[in-house]
């Protein structure tokens, strides 16, 4: 018999300790989502122990989860009036004000709590989260770095740092160069050079990019536009469009849309589609991604699904990746493995212009290092084993160098 069921008997409730009643309330709330029952246990506990702070904080949490914000505030303020240095109460009240879109009030609560505990990871992460929501990115970056200085394996702080980093600079420019060598498939190597400029705006980031490629002994240029509009604190989107008049070196048209979500427990997810138009009918590709931050790691799984244009079959590609952040959000090492060709791979997506779906395997490593306050160096290496004709395979080796500058 569970603890929650044991307290159905009135005599058992009367004799139970406040600790046991608090545990029963947690069981009712978390395991059974029975908030009225949980509150009844907490009221009984407060009758026994009116000054039991953890009981009153949990009662306030339940009020907050059920949108009874005034009752929640009363509970949290009652605890802080008696114990202004109690971090758990400051955290709970800050969460409530943040959920209620009262960023300045939440910030005041957090700063008050930090006076008593300057190294509180929970308060520092919440300060960064609130400042990020208020678009005070420089201050948010300072707060999240303090949290990581206390504990570099704080998963929530690591996830938040990456989001703040993308929003903190108004402008970014990037340069990259890719070199590809084939041992069998093509006699000449491929070259790709890119330049892009990104501007962060009130609705999200906007990027313009120019790609130059030399492959199949031909030159071509592609023009791209990308945007990441923010929709809410949880959701943002990705929109892209690309054009080239040199079909064969690049797709004639490429585009895409995705909806991203920053989920609880440091998960992130994406659903979307990609569009490629070569010379024949366009190719529509659907993608899904799930990522998870764990301490200083980011793990990711992605798939691309392509409904058959010429057959009833659906072809699929898969990828798995892991990144380890050894410093800031710009300091990382990563590995990736995959099956199939990604439409987001600007260098290799041209090989999707085929009626025959051939087998391809990939493995790669990546390295990024912040070399000055505003610039980042990136180096990637990849190996592909591709079936470029039925039952005929070859290897492809790719080296990429990139430089990013924020200002």
From TrEMBL:
TPR repeat copies, ranges: 53-86
Pfam families linked to this entry: TPR_19 (PF14559), YaiO (PF19413)
Xref: SMART domains: TPR (SM00028)
Alphabetical UniProt keywords: TPR repeat
Domain YaiO beta-barrel: 170-345
InterPro entries according to UniProt: Beta-barrel_YaiO, TPR-like_helical_dom_sf, TPR_rpt
NCBIfam families: OMP_YaiO_dom
Identification of the protein by name: YaiO family outer membrane beta-barrel protein
Organism from which the protein derives: Sediminibacterium roseum
